[in-house]
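Protein Record: Sequence and Backbone Structure Tokens
======================================================
Tokens: labelled as protein backbone structure tokens, with as many entries as the chain has residues.
Question of interest: how does this chain fold, as expressed in backbone structure tokens?

___
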Amino acid sequence: MTVQASVGDNDDANSKAIVVGTEFSDDAAIVRLSGDTKRALVLTADVIGPLVDDPETFGAIAAANSLSDVYAMGGRPLYALNLAFFPDELLSLDVLQAIMRGASRTCAEAGVSIVGGHTVRDDDIKFGLSVTGEVALGSELSNRGAVAGQHLVLTKSLGTGIVAGAIKAGTAESSVTEATIASMLRLNDAALTVGRRHGATACTDVTGFGLLGHLRNILMGSELTATLHVDSFPILPGALELACADKVPEGTRANLMFVESTLDSGDDVDPVKMLIAADAQTSGGLLLCLDADVTKAALAELAAEGHDAADVGVFESPSVDKLAGRISLRP
């Protein structure tokens, strides 16, 4: 979830307790606990539609996707509520039970207790979690914490949106499907641990707005610009080939159109990789903001943990020619 603004936020009597709210579209909200000077709550919710045919796998992916918002804020998820939208007149409740089993499996892996939830009758299946976590005050990783000169380390391959379209169409090769599902099932807890160990000052998870959209949120929050090297992107097997064949979801194209006015790119930049940079991810990786001198060590640790991570760019200070929020794309 990227936190969206709502009417009356600034008039709320509890607004002074809000550490991270809606201002810079962070992945989750952070709110101080009353009387607690050391800890804060991390609050988020996320719901997605099916990406795969197997309901248990879908539930597990949806749960990993929801939990990721808490990791992106530097927090530890604790409790979750199931959020299910289900056509019970069309499908057996066995399907819903399988979805919830998958979510339960992922939450158990993360040490998260599912303590309830809510189900709505709907024509289309959708599922996700409302998650409550915690973070030590002062150690949160918001979109406001990046620093010029830091490098951008992406901890998972891009392309889940593109491949998911092929999976739903029944055209994805089995090896491509397996690699994509494995990536989406991977929790971001180990990636956060590596980022913490190497002094990450800001973080976001790369999900629905794509790499470009989520990076833009950090740039606006931290008043920076960035250069991305598209040839350094880790990309899921099959995703580049599908994009070259113009098999790209409309959400990915919409993401690129939304940020296009903030991009600087030359003729030497592969337009297909620009689409990959905008691909709407599900349960994508973290984008860690790390000092240049620790980047190689962090990448080595991420590789040892099984992450297909890469150094994809660098933050820069704004200039007369390049205002905060702008992204330069280079090969």
The chain has two domains: 9-136, 151-330.
